[in-house]
Amino acid sequence: MADYNFDFLFIGGGILGSSGAMALSKRLEERGENARIAVIDVDLEGEHSSTLKNAGGVRATWKNRANIELCKYSIDFYETIREEIQFRELGYFWMHDEAWWQEIKKNHPLYKEYGLTVELYPRESVPEFLPFVDNLDGIAGLSISRNAGLLDHYSLREYYRREAKKRGVKFFDRLYVKKIIVEDGRVTEIIANQVEKPEGNIRDNSELIKTYLVNPEKRFRVNGEIGYQSEAVSFKCDVLINTAGAWSPRISKLYGFNDEKIKPRRRQMVVIRCAEVDLSSFGLIIDTSHVYFHKDAENILAGYSNMDEPYGYDIEFNFGGMDEGSPFVKYIWLPLWRRISKFERIKFIRGWAGLYEETPDRSGYLGRVPGFKNVYECGAHTGRGLMISHGAGMALTDLILDGKFREELKHAKDLSRERPSGDLFEELHL
Ligand SMILES: Cc1cc2nc3c(=O)[nH]c(=O)nc-3n(C[C@H](O)[C@H](O)[C@H](O)COP(=O)(O)OP(=O)(O)OC[C@H]3O[C@@H](n4cnc5c(N)ncnc54)[C@H](O)[C@@H]3O)c2cc1C
What we know:
globular, D-Amino Acid Oxidase, Chain A, domain 2, 2 domains, binds flavin-adenine dinucleotide
């Protein structure tokens, strides 16, 4: 069995594992220290990862200081690499119903305190800012967050990885973590299985990786028994960091932490075309129905988080197309058409499904895993993983190397499992 030794090992190389690896390697370089850092993933390309499924929206308008600080810190950084990550700071235009209008008004003083430009307008002003909206039913007010917009998730992840690799971080692909050995509260060894070669083409490879992520029991079943059918690789490390996204509870289980808080839930997005609605000068637009949409090249990307969706590892797209009664028609097209009559004639192009990792208070976990001497975690930021990624990577690094957070990120402590400031429920969440 091949074996490797590292000081720091991340399981999961999505946006959070990649950001964490960059932040850690950069800080160590600044301190003039050398360390061996690695990231393992079953599929570094990340075809089924949440990172490549998201809407690309970034904002800092949350209710809790921890989420505001980490997202603001990230956005300030994204502004410095704007071109590389195609960051378009075109704002969030949010049409609120009465309940969410009251909520954003309540949070507004906090946005001011953090220097975030968030403008609040009465419902009559909506057509002035969103000229294509011709039905104001159910709108109580409009908020426009200026320090917000859209970026390209793939470019951001690649940026983090490039910066990490420059500093010697090793990325291991096609390794599925299957076993973790713990001695006296310390993780001592991680055993991963090499993903076998696919039978034929790209489709086969995609299906193969999907089996590992959706139904690993099936993958490892040999002659009716759960077993290992491919080559194993062993990793030893001083510090383990769980950044496996929606799969992090499975990794937790391997080191003996029973995670009852993080639950995976399918979220779906569609691409449509409507030449009559020009969204080119807007970032993300959100309707009172909670349908969100934005321009994406020549098309429009739209999403809706169906709260009836059961928990589980389902990543099959099933919103359907234009057929009457399809979830797409019910949840996305009808609300859009009601609000903007020009959406009467649209073309459905395609759609996809990815996973949110939900927690009871809709805030993520960042910190040390209770009961373990050398295990940290960063994830479950729900629909916030992209927008929080840089701040989260920096905060994690502060905690691992210094045992405390820098001043701008001091509320990151609230994201530990212990929730020292109590529940971090986020109402304005999609
Ligand atoms: C439809 C949708 C829209 C969204 N929109 C937004 C948005 O607009 N803005 C925003 O900020 N966020 C959004 N999100 C959320 C965001 O995409 C996620 O929070 C973020 O991508 C999570 O990143 P991650 O690195 O934690 O997880 P992932 O990107 O899922 O990475 C986890 C990695 O772990 C690997 N892995 C899992 N198990 C194992 C194992 N056993 N062995 C080895 N590797 C393993 C996987 O292969 C994967 O690459 C959206 C999500 C969805 C689904």
